[in-house]
Amino acid sequence: MLEPMTTDTPARLLTLLSLLQTPREWPGGELAGRLGVSRRTVRRDIDRLRELGYPVQATKGSDGGYRLVAGKAMPPLVLDDEEAVAIAVGLRAGAGHAVEGVEEASVRALAKLEQVLPARLRHRVSTLQAATTPLASGDGASIAPETLTVMASTVAGRERLRFAYRAKDGTASRRLTEPYRLVSTGRRWYLVAYDLDRGDWRTFRVDRVSEPFATGARFAPRELPTGSAAEYLRRSMWGWAESYEFSVTFAAPAEFVAARLPGWLGVPEPLEDGRTCRVRGTSGGAPEWTAVRLAMVGCEFTVEAPEELVRSVEELGGRLSRAAVG
After folding, report:
1. 228 with 183: CB under 8 angstroms?
2. ω before 118 within 30° of 0 (cis)?
3. Integer Cα distance of 59 and 67 in angstroms
4. CA atoms of 185 and 63, how far apart (whole Å)
5. In sequence order, which ranges of 71-227 are alpha helices (DSSP H)?
6. Per-residue pLDDT of the chain (326 residues; tens, 9 = 90+)
7. CB 256, CB 225: distance < 8 Å
8. Could you give the CA distance from residue 130 to residue 165 in angstroms, rounded to a whole number?
9. HSE, side-chain direction, 13 A CA sphere, residue 307
10. Which uninterrupted H or E stretch holds 10?
């Protein structure tokens, strides 16, 4: 059987890969018909995909079948227009409002996707986002997704980053930095970076950043004063005092508490009755701050330790009770 002279092998491989990424088994004859080639060519193309690291499983039979299965590593995905738009919109929504649980990896994924989106799809993503209004909770500030994606790309590429910054008191400045990591606290995003003009490490609230610009200048990463960017952020926000451990029992199921308590404070452990749970965690903030955050869970709770947190909860309760009088 002669095959069409116009067959483009790279384009055909991409089409074949796109078909195989649909969760079903494809008979060899059906793939050959879709691609306009012989079954022998399909078998050769399957071998090429395997050489590229795609785990394609073949089944025996009169027609034979092919299926893409899970492998040891994540192979590149081929997305159609609708899938690419859906993923970009979802990542933008999460990144722009610092939803708890959406970490730096999500922002890196968004940066990679938006880098290769065709102009027509980028316009669709922007139109969809402009037409929707999320119901925000807490005081987390909104962030332009483009700001996060530029920052994520400079972190990943070890590229110096320049941006305009507005401090808490409103003072405006221009910063040239070596970005180290983006850190999400659930309500906000922060950039941990080495400030070249000030010759020291700094943390920047991303919602106060504007005009981010990747300079193209590469740098060798410096060593942080602490073991991780999250720990450096914690200490810069709450001082360099030692953190403390606490234990709290909530009169609610673990699922209820986990949905309302930041994961970095601790993970709820279900107790035997199934209706209560205990959180053993670590906090670097003032006990007064931890008391407020525990109260925001919205159910009865008992602080078991330390004594400083017990006193802070008692003082907070008394203050709120007095405020409600009259």
Report:
1. no
2. no
3. 8
4. 54
5. 81-96, 104-116, 119-130, 145-157
6. 334 434 567 888 888 888 887 767 888 888 988 899 998 999 999 999 888 888 888 887 665 689 888 766 666 666 777 777 777 766 666 555 544 445 566 676 777 777 777 888 777 777 766 565 554 444 556 677 778 778 888 887 889 999 999 998 889 999 999 999 888 776 678 899 999 999 999 999 988 999 999 998 989 989 998 778 887 887 777 664 567 889 999 999 999 999 888 877 888 999 988 899 999 987 766 788 889 989 999 999 999 999 999 999 999 988 888 887 65
7. no
8. 25
9. 0
10. helix 9-20
Tokens, residue 279: 């959180």
Token look-up 């999320």 returns 134
> What does the block give as tokens for 36?
């306009």
- Whole-angstrom distance, CA of residue 59 vs CA of residue 65: 5
Q: How far apart are CA 25 and CA 22, in angstroms?
A: 9
pTM, rounded to two decimals = 0.51
**Look-up of token digits 């919109």:** 89
Whether residue 220 contacts residue 180, with contact meaning beta carbons closer than 8 Å, is answered with no
